Amino acid sequence: MTDSNRDAAAASGQPAKPKPAFADPAGTWNQRYSADGFLFGREPNAWLAEHAEVWQAGQRVLCVADGEGRNSVHLASLGLQVDAFDISEVAVAKARKFASDRGVTVNFGIADCDSHDWQPESCDGIAAIFVQFADPPLRTRLFSHMRQALKPGGTLVLQGYTPRQLDYRTGGPPCASHLYTEALLRQALAGMDIVELREYEADLAEGSGHHGRSALIGVVARK
Ligand SMILES: C[S@@+](CC[C@H](N)C(=O)[O-])C[C@H]1O[C@@H](n2cnc3c(N)ncnc32)[C@H](O)[C@@H]1O
After folding, report:
1. Integer Cα distance of 120 and 68 in angstroms
2. What's the rounded Cα separation, in Å, for the pair 63 and 159?
3. Does the Cβ of 130 fall within 6 Å of ligand 1?
4. Per residue in 44-59, pLDDT tens?
């Protein structure tokens, strides 16, 4: 139970109802990231690593909801200028240390995707890897922010799970409305050039957070 929930219960004299995980994302994620180790591992996401060649050294890439830094640190090691943010201060503290241990520079921030300081046409690239915390209204705002932040010619690399993942339950949110289909991504990215859009299955070994047979979708899209 969160402190605010407990306080409200105490004030009303009623037993507190537990809040759903999405109602307190920072608290929920801080708790998940408080365990030792890296929830999603130290290696970059494979779809991102495979497609990072779309960007040239020196270009500016923003990692959205970057967690403990596995993706931002990898991109910085390729010579990119990397900005990254996440809602969890626990994750960002771990990411800062990870970058320092690896000897790379990443400009980290703590923010939720609505309050992040999105700068229009500022990024050559955006990496959005497993950002399916977003329900449909938040997803609409997030995609709009990401599209506006890309420079013309900039490239989005995104990975998520498809609804088939509900059969596997090896990672990702347990709700269909947060998951992506090809049709959903084509609609969300209408007007961008879809360089690659692939629905596939793979055995993930991304820490304990994403582990086992997984129903995935990846997209590379240019503004
Ligand atoms: C499945 S994890 C993926 C982390 C990272 N992209 C990776 O691939 O390792 C989802 C991330 O979204 C962050 N998050 C959840 N809600 C958020 C929000 N509203 N704004 C920004 N980040 C959020 C969590 O803290 C978590 O790090």
Report:
1. 26
2. 12
3. yes
4. 999 999 999 999 999 9
Query: Is residue 27 classed as helix, strand or coil in its secondary structure?
Result: helix
206 contacts 43 by C-beta, under 8 angstroms? yes
pLDDT tens-digit series, residues 132-191? 999 999 999 999 999 999 999 999 999 999 999 999 999 999 999 999 999 999 999 999
Q: How many CA atoms lie within 13 A of 92 on its CB side?
A: 18
108 lines ligand 1 (CB under 6 A): no
Nearest to 57 by CA among 79, 73, 74, 76: 79
Per the CB < 8 A criterion, the answer to whether 157 and 47 are in contact is yes
Other Cβ atoms less than 10 A from the Cβ of 39: the count is 19
Amino acid identity at 51: H
Of 222, 211, 155, nearest in space to 43 by CA: 211
Predicted TM-score (pTM) of the model is: 0.92
* Distance between Cα 13 and ligand 1 center (Å): 35
Judge whether 128 and 141 are in contact, CB under 8 Å: no
In the chain, % of residues over pLDDT 90:
90
Pairing of strands 150-161, 193-206: unpaired
State the angle between helix axes of 89-102 and 25-33 in degrees (0 to 180), rounded to the nearest 10. 40
The answer to whether residues 19 and 2 touch, using CB atoms and an 8 Å cutoff, is: yes
Please state the φ and ψ torsions of residue 210, each to the nearest 5 degrees.
-130, 100
What gap in Å lies between CA 32 and CA 78, rounded to an integer? 29
* CA nearest ligand 1 atom 13, residue: 65
